[in-house]
């Protein structure tokens, strides 16, 4: 480990590489926010209050403060956050290079590793969002580099304290990585008896880092409410996200997820880990400390992530510790290639391969609205101002950020809106018959980000189907569901004739006879037929109703049922099952199935 001065050629190489990589950050900027936490950040820029989870505790105060500066300059809340993230993404290459050099990597390895880091799919994708991970990473790497340089330079040590304080004001977990560089820099100042820089740096870390959270508490509803929010968040992490949750997967599986495949691209990650292994073995043989030092620096954060963080979001959390993966991969290429210029060329080719794979993901988020945002905006533009909007709680912060000055009624994801609700609109993450669907494919982006928010559905409440008595399943409104011998479903009433499409099924090999199915609408028999196949599709044109009720009643009857527990000895299902409804469609004959 050593400090080094940069030559003119090194400065030029870093500058040019940074500029080239910066140009690739722009196409990754997402068109809208997608995730729950992003929406909380947006709400926080408008009205900061950690007690109201704007954002969630401990509050990311300096991230929001920086976004507020951009907000004051004329950006809207989302793009103000993106401006901060974009700046962090642009500065990532020089930050990674400086830390690698301070750890003892040679210049070509440091620059090649920085380029690989910038194009890792999770780093590139999250560098275009409104999340704080990439700015926190950039500040953390810069702080560590300055603190290590501070062994021999007082000004660098003081600057490192400032940057570390800023990094802690975004993500307190940065201290896990920075504590060793801070100690090394402090020992260097002690040996030279430079007390002033030592005290100044410590005070700056405390004042900036700690003071930002004091400011967060004061900016919230009250200090007591802020403290309560922090305690509540801590309890959630301790009992839900961490290893203390008995429902969490085994620790070995969690470790494999966080450390071996934080995002779903095994070929890339296997190559990175293989090159890292080459680097570490060569370092052990040649007694080089840089590779092992980089791994040791981030190993505590890796362990913390495995033990304490949400296993559903490994790709985002892994952004904080991808530095050794990239740097060791570049160093492994150096072991194989040997010549510095060829080493950097090999790293550039690797980065190009990463970029080629990631490109469809960043273009998806950059060129289209995220499904929850698209659905909420569609309702906002198609519904009257005074209309109630029923929103699934899974989209609560997105709705709060987008449906301003609207009456929003949130409902639980495991509940169906009651049939008494006929006015207003509904937005849900579950498929709804007749609904306007907003969906993203489960492709490259799905394999990098948290797998939620890729589908949203919007519909007038008057068009919602209500499954009444006789149905067993409590799943999504358009999920396959079992009925017993008879079921009732309320369908929205419309003037004129309607088309009814049903896809019905049953395990015929378990029945003693082929079931006879009777279909009634408003107590009038529409059809009676024998279910001859395990799955049948039937369609009818239903004449206009004579009642003024808001719904028309569909009844399905089956004269044959089966109890699984009486057929299979291994089954404990005592339900009397008749028919399985796989699909129901109710619309005007010439309608394209949109609201």
Overall average pLDDT:
91
SS elements, strand count: 14
Give the low-pLDDT segments: none
Tell me the overall shape: elongated
User: Considering DSSP H and I runs of 4 or more, what fraction of the residues is helical?
Assistant: 40-55%
Number of domains: 3
What structural class should be given to the helix and strand makeup? alpha+beta
Provide a concise account of the structure shown.
Helix content is 50%, strand content 13%.
Structural description of this entry:
This protein has three domains: 8-357, no CATH class; 371-462, no CATH class; 466-587, Jelly Rolls (Sandwich). The chain contains 21 helices and 14 strands. The protein has helices spanning 8-25, 36-46, 61-72, 77-90, 92-103, 107-119, 121-126, 133-149, 154-168, 174-191, 195-219, 223-241, 251-259, 266-286, 290-308, 314-318, 323-337, 340-367, 371-382, 396-402, 564-567, and strands spanning 389-392, 408-411, 425-428, 436-439, 455-460, 466-467, 481-482, 486-492, 498-505, 516-521, 524-530, 535-542, 551-558, 580-587. The strands form three sheets. Strands 2-1-3-5-4 form a five-stranded mixed β-sheet, with helices on one face. A five-stranded antiparallel β-sheet has the order 6-8-13-10-11, with no helix packed on it. Strand 10 (516-521) and strand 11 (524-530) form a beta hairpin. The longest helix is centred in the middle third of the chain and has 28 residues, at 340-367.
């Amino acid at each position: 480990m050593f400090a080094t001065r940069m030559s003119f050629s090194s400065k030029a190489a870093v500058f040019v590489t940074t500029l080239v990589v910066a140009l690739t950050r722009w196409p990754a900027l997402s068109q809208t926010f997608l995730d729950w936490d992003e929406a909380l950040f947006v709400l926080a820029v408008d009205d900061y209050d950690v007690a109201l989870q704007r954002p969630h505790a401990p509050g990311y105060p300096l991230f929001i403060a920086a976004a507020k500066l951009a907000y004051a300059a004329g950006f809207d809340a989302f793009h103000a956050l993106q401006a901060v993230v974009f700046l962090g993404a642009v500065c990532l290459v020089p930050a990674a290079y400086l830390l690698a050099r301070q750890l003892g990597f040679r210049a070509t390895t440091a620059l090649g590793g920085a380029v690989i880091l910038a194009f890792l799919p999770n780093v590139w994708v999250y560098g275009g969002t409104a999340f704080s991970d990439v700015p926190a990473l950039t500040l953390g790497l810069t702080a560590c580099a300055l603190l290590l340089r501070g062994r021999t330079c007082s000004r660098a040590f003081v600057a490192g304290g400032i940057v570390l304080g800023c990094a802690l004001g975004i993500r307190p977990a940065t201290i896990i990585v920075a504590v060793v560089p801070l100690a090394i820099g402090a020992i260097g100042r002690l040996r030279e008896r430079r007390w002033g820089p030592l005290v100044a740096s410590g005070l700056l870390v405390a004042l900036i880092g700690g003071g930002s959270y004091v400011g967060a508490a004061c900016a919230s509803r009250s200090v007591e409410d802020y403290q309560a929010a922090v305690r509540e968040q801590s309890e959630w992490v301790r009992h839900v996200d961490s290893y203390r949750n008995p429902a969490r997967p085994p620790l070995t599986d969690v470790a494999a997820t966080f450390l071996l495949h934080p995002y779903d691209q095994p070929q890339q990650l296997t190559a990175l880990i293989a090159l890292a292994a080459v680097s570490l073995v060569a370092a052990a043989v040649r007694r080089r400390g840089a590779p092992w030092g980089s791994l040791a620096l981030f190993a505590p954060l890796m362990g913390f992530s495995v033990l304490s963080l949400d296993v559903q979001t490994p790709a985002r959390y892994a952004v904080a510790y991808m530095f050794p993966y990239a740097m060791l991969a570049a160093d492994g290429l150096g072991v194989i290639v040997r010549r510095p210029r060829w080493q950097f060329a090999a790293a550039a080719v690797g980065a190009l391969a990463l970029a080629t794979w990631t490109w469809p993901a960043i273009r998806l988020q950059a060129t289209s609205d995220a499904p929850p945002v698209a659905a909420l905006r569609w309702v906002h533009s198609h519904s009257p101002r005074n209309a109630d909007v029923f929103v699934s709680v899974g989209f609560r912060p997105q709705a709060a950020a987008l449906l301003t000055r609207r009456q929003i009624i949130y409902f639980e994801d495991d509940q169906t809106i009651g049939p008494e609700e006929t006015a207003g609109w509904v937005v849900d993450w579950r498929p709804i018959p007749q609904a306007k669907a907003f969906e993203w494919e489960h492709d490259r982006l799905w394999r990098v980000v948290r797998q939620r928010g890729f589908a949203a559905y919007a519909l007038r409440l008057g068009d919602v189907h209500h499954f009444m008595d006789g149905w067993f399943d409590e799943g999504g409104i358009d999920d396959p569901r079992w009925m017993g011998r008879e079921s009732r479903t309320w369908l929205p009433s419309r003037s004129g004739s309607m088309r009814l499409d049903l896809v019905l099924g049953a395990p015929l090999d378990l029945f003693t006879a082929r079931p006879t199915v009777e279909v009634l609408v408003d107590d009038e028999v529409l059809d009676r037929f024998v279910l001859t196949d395990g799955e049948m599709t039937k369609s009818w044109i239903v004449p206009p109703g004579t009642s003024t009720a808001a719904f028309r009643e569909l009844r399905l009857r089956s004269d044959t049922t089966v109890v699984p527990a009486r057929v299979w000895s291994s089954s404990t299902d005592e339900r009397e099952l008749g028919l399985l409804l796989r699909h129901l469609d109710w619309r005007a004959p010439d309608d394209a199935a949109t609201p």
